[in-house]
Design brief:
This protein is α/β, with parallel strands linked by helices and about 270 residues long. About 30% of the residues lie in helices and about 25% in strands. The protein has a six-stranded mixed β-sheet with strand order 5-4-3-2-1-14.
């Protein structure tokens, strides 16, 4: 397993999908020129997040729709993998808040639907995903996807760790005043699961929301190896294979799985 060079794009949401794709194209070129192999963008980057249920529904597409095809072309053109957020069409109800990984060859690698909806805004616009995230292989690394609020629940990252994930990639739209997520929870999630965690947040304002930035990469020891401030930034980080393979995972090995099931099982 070789080191993995990634970039996190902390940026305001665009005014339109056309603007999003144009800016994504330019940023992919910049990130690749700086040595990044993978770019992570914020939650719902292609369309905006706080845009209302009607607009979300109008912009929603299948996972292989025109937006995915456009991102695929950009990824191929610049030779860089892309993780992006978008609204996924749901024939049974409101769209899903989704994130998808496109490989540097343009192939779709993994699609994930946000399972934990945050507050009235999320619930007014989206249906919750019904399946836990699955780790996938890319360039010798096992990677997992989560979206924003998902990472604040210990179980979501632990399930990926138990699948052997080396890193968890998190498109997000965290807002003021919830800085404790970046200060406290992200280091804890990385440390307790002995993996890398890459958290790409939005910045600026959208509707009534003020995004708090502070995108960061946490190493398996919990330390922040790269961190942005409050403004727009293209954050670069190297996920060192030696840090992952040399870090002991005794907590996972010693975990009492027989006591970690439903409460009823622990009271037998």
């Amino acid at each position: 397993m070789n080191d993995l060079h990634i970039a996190l794009w902390q940026t305001p949401h665009p005014a339109s999908t056309a603007e999003a794709l144009q800016r994504l194209d330019a940023t992919c070129a910049q990130a690749r020129a700086q040595g990044a192999e993978l770019l992570v963008t914020p939650e719902m980057f292609l369309t905006g997040y706080a845009i209302g249920a009607e607009r979300v529904a109008a912009l929603a597409e299948p996972a292989d729709g025109p937006l995915a095809q456009a991102v695929s072309a950009i990824a191929q053109r610049h030779g860089i993998a892309v993780v992006y957020g978008y609204p996924e069409r749901n024939p049974q109800g409101q769209p899903f808040n989704a994130a998808q990984t496109i490989g540097a060859d343009g192939a779709r690698l993994m699609n994930y639907r946000k399972t934990h909806l945050f507050g009235d805004l999320d619930r007014a616009q989206f249906s919750p995903g019904g399946a836990a995230s699955l780790a996938f292989e890319w360039r010798g690394w096992r990677l997992g996807l989560l979206i924003c609020y998902d990472v604040e629940f210990p179980e979501t990252v632990r399930l990926l760790a138990l699948q052997g994930a080396d890193a968890v990639l998190v498109p997000t739209a965290n807002m003021v005043p919830f800085d404790e997520v970046q200060r406290v929870l992200l280091p804890a999630r990385a440390l307790e699961n002995r993996l890398f965690l890459a958290y790409a947040n939005a910045c600026g304002r959208e509707g009534g929301l003020h995004y708090n930035g502070l995108s960061q990469v946490n190493a398996p020891d919990g330390s922040a190896t790269a961190q942005a401030g409050a403004g727009e930034a293209l954050l670069r980080a190297t996920l060192q294979a030696s840090a992952r393979t040399a870090t002991p995972a005794a907590q996972l090995q010693d975990r009492r799985s027989d006591l970690c099931g439903p409460l009823a099982q622990s009271q037998r």
